[in-house]
Amino acid sequence: MLKIGDFSRLARISVRMLRHYDEIGLLAPSETDCFTGYRYYDESQLAIAYRITALRDMGFGLAAIGEMLKVYGDPEAMDMYMADMEMQLKMQIADTERRLKLIADARKQLREECNMNYNVEVKTLPERYAACVRMTLPQYEAEGEMWRILREETAALNVVPAEPCVRCAVFMDCEYKEADVDVEIQMTVNGQYPDTEHVRFKTLPEITFASCILSGGYEHLSGVYAAIIEWVGANGYECVGPVFNIYRVGPAETRNPDEYVTEVCYAISKK
Q: Could you tell me which residues come within 8 angstroms of residue 182 by beta carbon, excluding any fewer than 6 positions away?
């Protein structure tokens, strides 16, 4: 029999933790002196202690370890526990990699924004005729699907783009949404065409807006939004409509986000 201190040294588990294991029923001493309360362990319990430590190192919680010790002699049952932990760890790795990418992107953005000068102008788009698709998207990143639909449904109509052609996305929601976002894409065209399943051809009214050109990836959009809103407030204007982005150079023209040119716009009027 081993005193708790000797067992602690051999098992490489602190006395405090051994007492905790006893309290939760994970590893009870072989004997406990009823007068002194001293705990005594059998040498055979060292194997159990080593198993507990090994499972903790793998990431299993004490409750799960207690269940695993009951089936330790069953390879299939143990493999199920191991496979579940393996899946959890892979998910944690994927989440960590995602967070690391966000940090790297944020650091890159901070460096780039130090060299950015946001120049806000007031512009006017005259009345225009456009092919439009309006949909509720699961998220903002799904906008490309709308452009695919517009392209496929107008292919047979021999639609003639206006010159210059204004391609933009209008974000209809009054707030940022994580899901179910209301978006309308518009492409100015020459001529008259019948509507298709998803495409509506309509005349859009003249609009005055505050404009700022963003050269580069969309990860910088938040900085541009802030610059425009600050300029609008400082120059006696107010926002009177949804934000919209005019795509001068976008994914349709290049696969390199560094080459994107986006005109970020807010409909405005004088206060």
A: 134, 136, 171, 172, 173
